[in-house]
UniProtKB/TrEMBL annotation, chain A:
The keyword Oxidoreductase does not apply. The lineage of its organism: Bacteria, Pseudomonadati, Pseudomonadota, Alphaproteobacteria, Rhodospirillales. Belongs to the binding-protein-dependent transport system permease family. LivHM subfamily. One of its GO terms (cellular component) is plasma membrane. It comes from the Bacteria. GO terms for biological process: amino acid transport. It is a multi-pass membrane protein. This is Branched-chain amino acid ABC transporter permease. It comes from Oceanibaculum pacificum.
UniProtKB/TrEMBL annotation, chain B:
It comes from Oceanibaculum pacificum. One of its GO terms (biological process) is L-amino acid transport. GO terms for molecular function: ATP binding; ATP hydrolysis activity; branched-chain amino acid transmembrane transporter activity. Keywords: Amino-acid transport, ATP-binding, Nucleotide-binding, Transport. This is ABC transporter ATP-binding protein. It comes from the Bacteria. The gene is livF. Residues 2-232 form the ABC transporter domain. Belongs to the ABC transporter superfamily.
Length: 288, 232
């Protein structure tokens, strides 16, 4: 029972981890908490539907188109909003992210309707029994996709100098530009990557939830995961996501399914009150 | 030749340099001396684009450099070791050093320079895996210089490398500066400690509230009333 629960909770946790990574990347790079990030998750999934139903391409091609379009969206958000606002106050930039999210969400409501759309699974949602555990291929696909992305990001950030240069720019912009990093290009890359992560998360989570303009509320869980991980650590975001998935599943199973969705808010508040630096490590010193 | 002509520069609306003239010929060690707040750091910052230039020109070999960015300056061969050092404190000493060679990509020459710099700065070799923020002040200064040298700059701008360090460490760092200047790197050295700077420099400028008030070769500066009064 417990083993089954942990396996199932990994699916949700993996998606939370992805969203948390997006939040942390954007925050580390640009200092902004992207309040419209959840709407980008929703928008990404809708992009697949739009490509399928209005462009008329098959599901796999629609996914490719959605991924490309979301990269363009990320670049556009950076160029149109974040560059002009680069010297604006933090509050102005936060409100801009909120506005971007609202615009995306309400555009979807206006043009795609307020109702839920069915969204295809990547693999069969019918459970298969393996050694006493019920495994759902569709869920395994989610975990698989997230693992591949995490491995790719890990290799890029830890093993390549280009990846380290991005982390360096997140830590110290002046220092990074002094070693030759074009900091504006780093921000562009971060917006593109985070937008891509949002769309992947949207595509993965849409069949589990239902795809409606308000699906982006799921991002509060990614946000909680990021807070659990300290909001500045990429590995912390991943661990936070997985942990939140497990805690949710345990709450749902042993306390009450009604509380399942509340638990992330409770955790969010508790962490902010008791341990604002996150569960892992001490307060990170940002500069030398 | 790096040259600044009638440079007015500062931060935001605040002008700090009021028409400054300065030249650094290739191969030379030039020092810029002045009291705290005179505009020494601003001069270096203006060269690499960290301070805004509102008038005048900054040129490298006759090609303008004015109001670029530090990464553009580095691509032209000018590296700044900033007063604040600007290390990546959360990253290892080794990563900081390797990042210094970012623009050169991966090559045997970069790997060789990495080893060579660790021979020059043996204290860094002992701390390769440590986060840069755990280093002592002197070690951080050494790392900042080594990181800049990883880019093999033609011009090295040093902003008060002796600041806040024990005399023994300062001697060590100035020995290294002397060695670097012998290896074909042109140096512009900013210092408050005139005696020390004039030991390594061929030529010097004195800056007071954003203007050059005296210049000459090292001997002339040592003998000058302005330097005598203020610093010696
Ligand atoms: N980032 C900054 N923004 C605004 N003013 C600055 C900044 N940095 C330095 N200043 C001002 O510029 C003047 C010269 O500073 P600086 O060039 O750092 O002098 P020095 O390096 O000779 O001690 C000082 O009055 C200082 O307050
Ligand atoms: Mg200074």
């Amino acid at each position: 029972m417990l083993a089954q629960l942990l396996v199932s909770s990994l699916t949700a946790g993996a998606v939370y981890a992805l969203i948390a990574l997006g939040f942390v990347l954007l925050h580390n790079g640009t200092g902004v908490v992207h309040f419209g990030y959840g709407d980008q998750v929703t928008f990404g999934a809708y992009l697949v539907l739009i490509a399928q139903n209005f462009v008329g391409v098959p599901f796999s091609a629609a996914i490719m188109m959605a991924l490309l379009a979301s990269m363009a969206l990320g670049a556009a958000i950076y160029a149109v909003f974040m560059v002009p606002l680069r010297n604006a106050s933090l509050l102005a930039r936060l409100i801009a992210t909120l506005a971007i999210g609202t615009a995306l969400r309400e555009w979807l409501r206006a043009f795609m309707g307020p109702n839920a759309w069915p969204f295809p699974f990547l693999l069969s949602p019918a459970p298969v029994e393996v050694g006493g555990l019920m495994l759902v291929p569709a869920n395994l696909a989610i975990i698989g996709v997230v693992l591949v992305i995490l491995a790719g990001l890990y290799l890029f950030f830890e093993k390549t100098l280009q990846g380290k240069a991005i982390l360096a720019a997140c830590e110290n912009r002046t220092g990074a530009s002094l070693i030759g990093v074009r900091v504006s290009r780093v921000f562009l890359v971060i917006w593109v990557v985070a937008s891509l992560l949002a769309t992947v998360a949207g595509i993965l989570v849409a069949p589990l939830l239902t795809l409606s303009p308000d699906m982006g509320l799921i991002a509060i869980k990614g946000f909680t995961a990021a807070v659990l991980g300290g909001f500045s650590s990429l590995p912390g975001a991943v661990v936070g996501g997985l942990l939140l998935g497990v805690l949710e599943a345990l709450t749902g199973a042993y306390i009450s399914t009604a509380l399942k969705d509340m638990i992330s808010y409770a955790i969010l508040i508790a962490v902010i009150l008791v341990r604002p630096q996150g569960l892992f490590g001490g307060l990170a010193l940002k500069k030398v | 030749m790096l040259s600044l002509r009638n440079v007015r520069a500062g931060y935001g609306g605040k002008e700090v340099l009021h028409g400054l003239n300065l030249a650094v010929p290739r191969g030379a060690v030039v020092t810029l001396l002045g009291a705290n707040g005179a505009g020494k750091s601003t001069t270096l910052n203006a060269i690499v684009g960290l301070a805004r230039c509102s008038d005048g020109s900054i040129e490298l070999d006759g090609v303008p450099l004015t109001n670029g960015t530090p990464d553009q300056a580095l691509r032209r061969g000018i590296a700044l070791v900033a007063e604040q050092r600007e290390l990546f404190g959360g990253m290892s000493v080794s990563d900081n050093l390797r990042l210094g060679g970012l623009l050169r990509g991966r090559s045997r020459a970069v790997a060789e320079d990495f080893e060579k710099l660790l021979d020059t700065f043996p204290r860094l070799r002992e701390r390769l895996a440590q986060p840069a923020r755990t280093l002592s002040g002197g070690e951080q200064q050494m790392l900042a210089i080594a990181r800049a040298l990883m880019a093999r700059p033609a011009y090295l701008l040093l902003d008060e490398p002796s600041l806040g360090l024990a005399p023994r460490i300062v001697d060590e760092i100035f020995d290294i500066i002397r060695r670097i200047s012998g290896e074909d790197t042109t140096i512009l050295l900013v210092e408050q400690n005139a005696m020390l700077a004039l030991e390594v420099a061929d030529y010097g400028y004195v800056i007071e509230t954003g203007e050059i008030t005296f210049e000459g070769d090292a001997d002339a500066l040592r003998g000058s009333a302005a330097v005598q009064e203020s610093y010696l």
